[in-house]
Amino acid sequence: MKPISAAFFALPLIAYTADPAVEWRGLHGVGVAAYAAGQFSRALPLLERAAETARALPKPDARRARTWNDLGAVRYALGNHEAAVVAYRIALEEWLALPTGREQIHGRAATLNNWSVAERRLARYPEAERLAGHALALLAGNGLGPDGGVSGVQRTRVLQNLAEVARLRGDLDAATAALAHATAAGQVDPVAAGNLLLTRAALALEQGAPDAAGALAGRAIGTLRDAVGEDDPRTASARSTLAVALFRQGRLGEAETILRAVAAVYRAQPDPEPLAAVLNNLGLIRSARSDDAEAEPLLRRAIAIWEERLGPRHPNVARGLENLGDLFAAQGKSSGAEKLYRRALAIAAESGSAGLRDEIAAALTRLLETNGRTVEARRLRSLNSQSVRSQP
After folding, report:
1. Is residue 125 a contact partner of residue 114, using CB atoms and an 8 Å limit?
2. Which of 91, 113, 276, 290 qualifies as a FRET site for 140, CA 20 to 30 Å off?
3. What angle is formed at CA 105 by the lines to CA 64 and CA 99, rounded to 5 degrees?
4. Is the Cβ–Cβ distance between 162 and 192 less than 8 Å?
5. What is the pTM of this model?
6. Which tens digit of pLDDT belongs to each residue from 113-139?
7. Which CA distances in Å does 225 have to 222, 231, 238, 281, 353?
8. How far apart are CA 56 and CA 52, in angstroms?
9. pLDDT (tens digit per residue) in 356-386
10. Which of 27, 131, 127, 123 is nearest to 70 (CA)?
11. Which of 117, 78, 123, 83 is nearest to 316 (CA)?
């Protein structure tokens, strides 16, 4: 089994006028303020209205591009990842319509990277890598590389995103290289610094170094807590990664305490998808502590959230099915475990995540061998070996 790695405030009244520029300024300003305060559901209709109002502004106009980019960010925060992709695509079209200049290049690069992150969340890794690579080339090709200021921070964010894409694809060498470049740049704001530490911690977990991962996650928690507060979802994500490191170290009680606190933070958020990983990991801990009665519903709930929010063919669904299959196998429910493993294997093979596919295939092979089905086990091992050799 393997774990998966805002206060209310009063908004000013908006005066609707016949002047689209004035109306846009009010809608956009209040919408961005609501987003910054974590009031994503409140920000969404304001920025949608701002995007409609921006259509009446002269074209080309950077305000149109900024509005669609901001709308994409709100949709992403609410877990509407496909809708975020649509908004980022429109934002990029608006940026491309503008004369080339520093603001336009920065805007294009930011939108490309934001779009890439949404694609990454949807497990469309080739597209995510392509978009982030384009953003990086755009910054470097226009003299906006590691030169300090906004462009240096932007470059680091793109590299951190590329590292995450590579890690999720199972290419740990590429992830390590991207992180090395990002760390060498040394130009980050506090949130980006925390996220960079968090990606390094996740990579250390993939490399089988839970002690190093725990230390990095602890540093990420401190950085993000100072930047955005204890109860911010980004700090919660770092605490969740620390819990996984503790779990890998066998410190189950400490890991469970942290995860239950993190779950309370995520339950207050509008997007339930991050909660799924916490429920999955709590299920693994309860299983390790021989509490199958609690473990199974936790694992099933995690799978259900992933299927609803990310789609039934997402790699996270495969991971959840594998974990539930492991639980069934340990209980001697071989038939149920086999069905789960085979479904998980099909999803993993589609996703292009070689590491996940190999892991699930190994679990299914062990199950077949345990049940005396050695011919089928050898055939599966042979097929998986051929698939590995065919990888680029």
Report:
1. no
2. 91
3. 65
4. no
5. 0.85
6. 999 999 999 999 999 999 999 999 999
7. 5, 8, 10, 22, 32
8. 8
9. 899 999 999 999 999 999 999 988 887 765 5
10. 27
11. 123
